[in-house]
Amino acid sequence: MTEINNAANTTSKRNAAIDGMRAIAVIAIVAFHLRPIVLPGGFLGVTMFLVMAGYFSTVSLLKMFETSNAQKSPATSEQTKTPVKSKIFAYLKYLFKRVKRIWPSTIGIIALSAPLMWLFSPSLLTKLQSDALTGASFTSNMAYILRKVSYFEQSGLPSPIKHLWYLGLIMQIFVFWPIILWAILKIVHSKFVRMCVTAILMLACSLANLAITIFYGDGQTIARVYYSIDTRAGEFLIGALLAMYCTWFSERSIIKIIADACKYIVGNKSKKTQIEKIEDSSEIEAQNTQNTQNKSQSSEASIPDDLLAGLQVNMMESDKDGEYDESDESNNEIAGEKWQQTNESENTDKVKTDLKNKSESGKFAKIAKTLQKPLSTLQKSIIGLAALIFILWCLVKEDGSKTWIVYGGYTIFAIVCAILMWSCLQKNSICTKILEIAPLKYIGLRSFAIYIVHFPILEILNP
What pTM value is reported for the model? Predict the structure, then answer.
């Protein structure tokens, strides 16, 4: 419960740097809609919004599920029905909050656009009428998939509410993600494995995006890929993964988590090796006994017959007479020297092996100790700045026809956005100080309103 509270405290306070990220995203989208040549990669601002939505939505859901689990009380079968009802109620309350936040603005912009189109651009009124119902019901993206309306196609008159496809996509994700996350939390008990399951879902969405593009896209981002929930949810899940990390492992570095996972795997392998050694010890001992017997037989066979007969006679005579034979002592001394040399060589090899194992384990311990150290503020700042530079470069230089964007680029860009967001959540980061400047903060606080109203206005003003 404390982990959830810590994460909630970090997100309940308004983060000015994340508002700066919102500002960059909405500026990129508006510039792309104004003139694509101004900012060719501005459409990637939607990916930034998806990552941020995935983070905040998942943090809220984890807090909600943790609160409902804390309120459970073991009792009779009648009382066990209460947590189920409470979860359903919490789920409906979660959806109602999202609809209450988004739907009034959506209805408002549709209602406001109709008279404006009738007065200033009557040619767009037909487009508005055809998309009004799907826009109000958050199904614009599905309609565009069925009608094969490309997001990047510039020919013809676009719908003045075409941008509402994103609200439809995000609302559809809000419907399904709480159920999926609840199932993951219910079935999987390890937090690390929960993140792995979420990562697998993210990879599945990315692979679906890639597969559809390869087989049907012909080198372009088609409507089926750009608008669909199964191909774009991966970007949302990357933000969800960041939320899980910040909620469950906020006091540990990512490098330490990887080191612990490697240590766990190596530990299992060493245990397995020890078990195999124990199982094989009896076989090794039996083999050594057999080798000793073979050596004694071979040494006995190498003695000439006449000498062996003489030895037998001498042994019998010594048994009978009780006399001492010097040949027995010399033979025993030779055998003892050979045994001592063999034993010393075996001990030397064993000591060398032990020293080698100790040196290797010492190196591993040093590496593990180095990896487990948390990143410094400077290192976090460098990582965040590198992510910010990459994002700005993509917004300025890339466009929807670039090969790497079409074939998996949305996932890569989303991962970099998550890294930038992680840097914004760190204290005293240089990247945080850059993004929390007043102009970006001002725009970021109004990013949703700007996104809602900008497209109809641009269509009216566009000659």
Answer: 0.75
Q: How far apart are CA 65 and CA 179, in angstroms?
A: 11
Give residue 9's pLDDT.
47
Instruction: Give start and end residues of each alpha helix (H) in 303-325.
Output: 305-321
Query: How many angstroms separate the CA atoms of 72 and 333, rounded?
Result: 81
Annotate 49-63 with DSSP letters as a single string: HHHHHHHHHHHHHHH
Contacts of 184 by beta carbon, 8 Å cutoff, 6+ apart: 194, 197, 198
Q: Name which of 21-30, 203-212, 365-374 the model is least confident about.
A: 365-374
Angle at 49 between CA 448 and CA 158, to 5 degrees: 70
Tokens of 101: 């936040």
Q: Are 52 and 22 in contact, with CB atoms under 8 Å apart?
A: yes
Does position 376 have pLDDT exceeding 60, yes or no? yes
Higher pLDDT, 299 or 350: 350
Residues 154-166 have a mean pLDDT of 84
DSSP string, 226-271: HS-HHHHHHHHHHHHHHHHHHHHSTTS-HHHHHHHHHHHHHHHHHH
CB 62: neighbour CB atoms within 10 A? 22
Under a CB-based contact definition with an 8 Å cutoff, are residues 431 and 424 in contact?
Answer: yes
Tell me how far apart the alpha carbons of residues 144 and 131 are, in angstroms, rounded to a whole number.
9
CA 188/CA 339 separation, integer angstroms: 59
| CA angle (46 as vertex; 192, 225 as ends), nearest 5 | 85
Q: What is the mean pLDDT of residues 299-317?
A: 48
Torsion angle in degrees (nearest 10) through CA of 182, 184, 185, 189:
170
Please report how the helices 165-187 and 125-136 are oriented relative to each other, as an axis angle in degrees rounded to 10. Answer: 20
138 φ/ψ sector (left φ>0, alpha ψ -120 to 50, else beta): left
Size of the chain in residues: 463
